[in-house]
Design a protein that fits this description.
about 575 residues, alpha/beta, Glucose Oxidase, domain 1, TIM Barrel, 8-stranded mixed β-sheet, 24 helices, 16 strands, globular
Length: about 575
Amino acid sequence: MTIALHGVGVSRGIAVGNVHIIQRDQFDIREYSIEPGSINKEIQRFEMAVTNARQQLRAIRDHIPGTTNTDITAFIDTHLLMLEDAALNHEPVRLIRELACNAEWALKLQRDALVNVFEEMDDAYLRTRKDDVDYVVNRIQRMLLNQAPPKHEEPDNLLTGHIVLASDLTPADTVMFQYHGITAFVTEYGGPTSHTAILARSLGIPAIVGMQHAMRYINEDDFIILDGARGVVLINPEELALKHYRKLQKEEKRYYTSLGKLKGKPTITLDGTPIELHANIELPRDFDTVLQVGADGVGLYRTEFMYMNRETPPDEEEHYETYTKVMKILKGLPLTIRTLDLGADKQVDGGRQSGLVASNPALGLRAIRLCLKEPALFRPQLRAIIRASIHGPVRVMIPMLSNINEMILVLQMIDEIKSELDEKRIPYDQNLQVGGMIEVPAAAVCADVFARHLDFLSIGTNDLIQYTMAIDRVNDEVNYLYDPLHPAVLRLIHTTLQAGEKANIPVAMCGEMAGDPQYTHLLLGLGLREFSVHPAALLEIKQIINQCKLTILKKLAKKALNADNGIEVAEIMASANRSLS
């Protein structure tokens, strides 16, 4: 008998195959004392485990074909660097000496300390870095405990064609799936804006999250159909259902092949309105994909990676060299650099400052608040961006603005830096554009004020929705309230777009909402003319834009703005999307 289970579809696509269940490592780590004469031997045991873990990762990397997505090798390289980091390499050794304890316990203590630091961070992306710590620590623990690596990490592709089921997954797991030939995954926990979900979309892996208690009904090696668009899993499907989904798979493959024909073609509606399609980028290695999909530029360049896994922040020259290198890759395409968007609740890495642990870090000292409080952290980045502007079209984007005073202070600092550069006759773009992110409801309500002083605005929907709905979007207990279609969210977006139009400045959107095809018609109708999305979503968004008429979409958007709740809006747009597709 066929059983259907429902979850939250976060990455579209259909997968058919047998299930492999990943059970998260549950190490029973106990503390015991080491005799003084045996401490050096215990340290050697730990160091050997680190060496073996390093060799294991290198072996995996060496087995990866050269044609594989660079994200996979990059994740392995990140974990190799973590194995070299003093926090995981030297600190456990110190604990073994000081506490005269076993290596497993020392490693557990250090793991707990590091994870606590990451859990206190306000930024959802940075919080997921604790998964990388766990990934590396668990690999060392398996060596110490003489345990074999899990099946899904073995470099022999035994799981090709399988669909993974797990309680939850780390971003590292998700990235490695493509290498192992795993076609899709289901998790019992997680939400649509988790980093694992975002990675699944960027890698094109069909995925469903939040399918609670799935392991009660799905067993190892069960044959299932996974529908990532509808969030449905069919266990032991009947032949008729299997035939139907095999047909859908073929249609889907033809569809994505057809998208490739849009590369290099203009993005313009049927009634002649050009739309800009930019890309969101996190790491320098991602910039090649911007050119591959034919993006109009980079609408969001996150710079937080420069501050991670280091004890001191990058200096001005390192910033300058990084941005200059990126601009050479882009060959004249515009680049929007978001300044540092970290919090300051704990001392960690090169972008964190010491201080009290914030009781609610998402509402604490973060992003521009931190930068204005710590100008020694902020000024080198600003100076580098301004200097780099001489090499091509670059824009500065300030995150999490909430009041006009912050904006004025930033603009004053930029003017001061320009004066310093003028005195030293250092060239820069005299017309450098400065914009702000609208991701706080207060900023959206006062968008007209910001628009009068800035060159552009960009709506960060991930945080805007989170703050508007007063929920933590990565908290499984409340993330069901994360609703991009809530009337309050739509009105804030519309208010911001109107403010930009009145001030005659562009307004972009760089949050996940911009890259989700189900919202494209609505956003166009609301007045959005500049999208910034993950490169993997860009061509599909382009196709939707090229097939629609704004005159029709404006009427739909007006209807949506007058709706009483998100469910009503969803019904309006679902009906519209069906009729317009």
